[in-house]
Design brief:
This protein is α/β, with parallel strands linked by helices. It has eleven helices and 13 strands. Strand 6, helix 4 and strand 7 form a beta-alpha-beta unit.
């Protein structure tokens, strides 16, 4: 079976990518993912908020306000050097593509950082832009999309490696956003980023962390928007993420139009050994359906590929319950 796939200008030996997380924060762990069969790894993100918080804490503790710029610059440079070392160490051990990741919420020094990460040997760069628009007095809804495209254009001018945008699902028109990102130079998109999940402890009456890992039930949104995006926006790679837990989920994402899938929660829960299990299931399914390569079926059930694209539209929810066949379920 030919498991190779083309993703954002990269050739992967198979579509399974270990996503950015604590799973990918050490070179030896990334080597273990490669040995388990992963097609690529996305390194744990370089977090803008974390760096700003660290530098802010040090500046606040200082009695010399004039030292603020120096302290902030030092903290950023130190974190960047550590990240560059992670790239170099992983590249020295691994032969699969190594994708660097920056988690940011504003345009700025990340353009310079991106160039340094490319020089360190990163094969591609994933930009995880997070900005939650919550100001009730700000009606400029386009600002968030503008932020994405501004950061993307700046980074694209600074690097020659592929740039991938990882986005959340809290947008009203995801294909339109992806179309704008493509026009701004994005080589690929990841659907979706899983944000921090808050919860409330009613006994302590405190805000606490909610569910950390995704579940199979999260896959439905991922499949819908993968199929709609891949079917409506041509010329940009789509990777499915969130809710991918086994080999059958991988097959579903590929049929929907993804050229790659990102794994995180399932690797946390089951270890790297889940990767060969997923590849085996994919290969078994391909044999059963007489496919010799991924190219033969990727996107077969995307919005453009399926004979009935309305299955991905919200109206189907009403049709389901109006169908006598389901009324007694």
């Amino acid at each position: 079976m030919n498991m190779k796939t083309e993703y954002a200008g990269l050739t992967l030996r198979n579509p399974l990518i270990v996503g950015s997380s604590g799973l990918t924060n050490q070179a030896k762990r990334n080597k273990a993912h490669e040995e388990a069969g992963a097609g690529a790894v996305v390194l744990k993100s370089l977090f803008e908020e974390q760096i700003e918080m660290q530098s802010g804490t040090l500046v606040h503790a200082s009695d010399f306000p004039e030292a603020a710029d120096y302290v902030a610059s030092y903290v950023k440079a130190n974190q960047l050097e550590k990240y560059i070392a992670l790239i170099e160490e992983t590249k020295a051990l691994c032969h699969i593509p190594v994708i660097a990741s920056i988690n940011c919420c504003r345009a700025g020094t990340w353009v310079e950082y991106a160039s340094r990460l490319e020089k360190a040997g990163a094969d591609a760069l994933e930009l995880n832009v997070f900005y939650l628009h919550t100001d009730p007095n700000d009606t400029r809804s386009g600002d968030v999309t503008d932020l994405y495209t501004t950061i993307l254009r700046g980074v694209k001018k600074a690097v020659s490696i592929p740039v991938i945008m990882k986005i959340g699902k809290n947008f009203s028109n995801i294909p339109a956003l992806v179309s704008r990102l493509k026009a701004a130079g994005a080589d690929g998109v990841v659907l979706f980023n899983r944000y921090y999940q808050p919860d409330i402890d009613i006994n302590r009456q405190q805000i606490v962390s909610g569910k950390v890992f995704s579940s199979h039930s999260d896959l439905s949104d991922t499949l819908r928007w993968t199929a709609l995006t891949a079917g409506k926006v041509q010329g940009i790679s789509v990777a499915s993420s969130t809710g991918v837990h086994d080999g059958e989920d991988v097959v579903k994402c590929l049929l929907a139009g993804a050229s790659a899938v990102q794994l995180c929660s399932t690797v946390y829960m089951h270890g790297p050994e889940i990767i060969p299990q997923m590849l085996t299931r994919l290969e078994e399914w391909m044999m059963q359906n007489k496919y010799l390569s991924l190219k033969e079926f990727i996107g077969k059930l995307s919005f453009a590929g399926t004979g009935n694209p309305s299955f991905y539209e919200r109206a189907q929810f009403m049709k389901y319950f109006s169908d006598p066949e389901h009324t007694n379920d």
